[in-house]
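Hey team,

Sharing the Potassium channel family protein run so nobody has to redo it. Sequence (582 residues) first:
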Amino acid sequence: MELPGPMPRRADRVPMARRKSRAGILIVAIGAVMVIVYAAVFKTLMGVDAQDHSWIGAIYWTITTMSTLGYGDITFTSDAGRLFSLLVLLSGVVYMLVLLPFFVIQYVVTPWLDRRRTARTPRKVPAQMRDHVLLVGSDAVTQAFAARAERSQVPAVLVVEDPVEAGLLHDQGRQVVVGPLDSAQTYRSAGADRARMVASMLSDTANTNVAFTVRQVCGDVPVAVTASKPVSVDVLSLAGSDHVLELGAVLGREMAGRVLGTTGRVHRIGSFGDTLIAEAAVRGTSLVGKSLGEATMGLRSCVRILAIMRKGRLRPLKPELPITEQTVLILAGEAAELAAYDEQFQVLEQSEDPVIILGGGRVGRSASRELTAQGVPNTIVELLSDRVENSYSALEGTASYTVVAGDAADQRILRRAGLENASAVLVTPRDDDLNVYLTLFCRRLRPELQVVSRATYERNVATLYRAGADGVLSYATIGATDLWNHAGLSHRVLVAEGNELFLVPRPNSLVRRSVRDTEVHRRTGCHIVAVAGDDGTLSYDTESIPSAPGKLLLLGDRHAERRFRETYLRRRRRGRRVTTSR
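Structure output:
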């Protein structure tokens, strides 16, 4: 499902309503001017025909002619008068059949439909609902979370202020509660005291008010909010927020974490229990040229290869699969095991090549800080160089960054920034159209370069991959994944936009099948990559799915997850319901 952008709030609709009012007044004024002018011309032409009519008679004739009624009781005898009648008739057809219906639809039909939609929008959740997640506001993050909750059959309720917006969301199948966001009664009606978590994705000031209001209703419900400015973190915590997510900073760090570098070292991207999930590029290592089977046999540690990716796409885990320079391994293991992998394959005598960051906004600056902390030299290309801080005093003594002022779409600027010697490019602007352009531009300049791009809307993710991005990350997915994990739901690790590692209950129909069962992937698109215990820790000592209670670790996109749940999990739930009813 494509995620729409944030809907306008009530304050934003005031200018829109004013514009509609002006348009309606203009339509009425045009009609009145037409009637007065035509009536005046009518009286003049009737004088030529030696007929005398009052102003009431002139207006009567004008309106009946414009509306095509034409009773015929008042007519012209001259050709000039008849031509004028045709003009009045044709202009009346245009006015009556085009402008007036538009006026009626905008000011009669649409408000009536909005009132009907508003009347059936819920004002409260059912009394028996509990352990649900309240999502305050409607933007890309909350709707991504709501879509994920729908797939996982986790109750999620959107709390919005505008009744029309609530009606639209309700028509889309979302659970909605409408009410003022700064009213304690709204959250009482939404069952905040029974909720698993309250998450607010509004502005920093609005999130502060929401946190205070929720705390007035319930003092122990977890409250998660987003912050656009670092200075807001402490204020939001004082207001009662348990978890403050700086989306810009997190997205920058995640993008920096996807830079694979040129030395083959592992990059941690998440964890399940005590098991760490990491990715490692094989470029420049001794693994290049080997098959997957040979690489697996040559591992000295207990690190497990969960998946293989090339250019952001999964490849089947077949022993004969060749490992090329573009291969990225998704690894699982404990910290000591990943360190042993580094010791075996990392090219220590080679230093990391620099990274170019296109855009010096919050995301770009956060990515630069993360790379600098890792000792990776980086260069920020920013048109407005004053946006970028001049120094990182907290990171003194580590690799530094440089700033190149200019347009990132200019080949000369990129070459001045060191594109020829870079290992990767991070595309961080907010404009998806610009990001598609920059991704394609960098890919054409250096085909072997790693390109990690940012997306704002999910609909542009596939386009960015087609443009040549090796990895894509977005606000919506990063925010929704963070909130999902913070809510204590089934843990997830984002590998790349469109590919996630997630846990599901172990279906009985898959017991004793191979972990590498291709039938599951053929039917659903999900890869079974490991078996996990109840605590989420991965098991390495099994190649088949045991009958003991536990979970499966799957890798796939949202469509594959939906198909897996419909194929294997909902069937089990239906069976349980039948057994219970008997």
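Residues 471 and 496 are 6 Å apart (CA to CA).

Ping me if you want the raw files.
A.
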